[in-house]
Sequence to fold (281 residues):
Amino acid sequence: MKSIIIKHITIVLGCGLVYLLFATYFLLGAVIGSFLNVCIYRLPNGKSIISPPSACGSCGHRLSVLDMVPVFSYIFLRGRCRYCKSPYSSRYMFVELLTGILFALCGLYYLPGLKMALVFFFIACLIVQAFIDLDHQILLDEILMLMLPTGIIYAYYALPDMWDSLYGALFAGGLMLLIFLVSRGGMGAGDVKLSFVLGVWLGLKASVVCLMLAFVLGGIIGVLLLVTGIKQRKDPIPFGPFLCIGAYIALLFSPYLIYFYWNLFVCCLLYTSDAADEARS
Fold:
């Protein structure tokens, strides 16, 4: 009886520690997401991300710590400045929530350590690039130059070998370069550079998954934007956000997606073969 009680207590404590760890990842992501909002706003405009301190965009009043608590400040202040009552975008809270959730999901696949820290940095860069591309249709070289060396370090520890990283970079960057040349500007040069860097991080197989997801998601969203009239045929639709989404999904789930689609492919071949045999008979 005593051993059963101890066993149950151990299980409860273990579950509690797991939940605490995920909560820690989420809170860390939310805090970093608050800083990413600063990067998203200031970097494309050539402003420093360190100074001046954050201030209200309407009245210019310097924000206090209570005004910048991730997620909660927006909820408690109802999306308005505490001093002038002017509303501000809900995207600030969205970026904080998104970063927290993406960080927490990484806890399912990575143990605390260098690889997790590198992945957190990778996610932060993806979020900044995606939202800057949405706002300004540009992908910053400064962030790509940070992603490249950290990607090489990550590949050294996480991928089977460095050749896999090189093959991924050549495949992703080469394919996007080919599309860039054939489309004559239909695809941006920033997308080519981003794809090359993503290939360094992901390796060959995950790079295939990343690009496949990016093209599928981009096609679906693009069609929906055209059908709904939000975008016209000649309006540019940034592709960077789809690459970033595909990269995150491929980083965590590419083995499962490859396994699923390979089995689906085999099943289709077997079904086609059986159908052909029945037709001949």
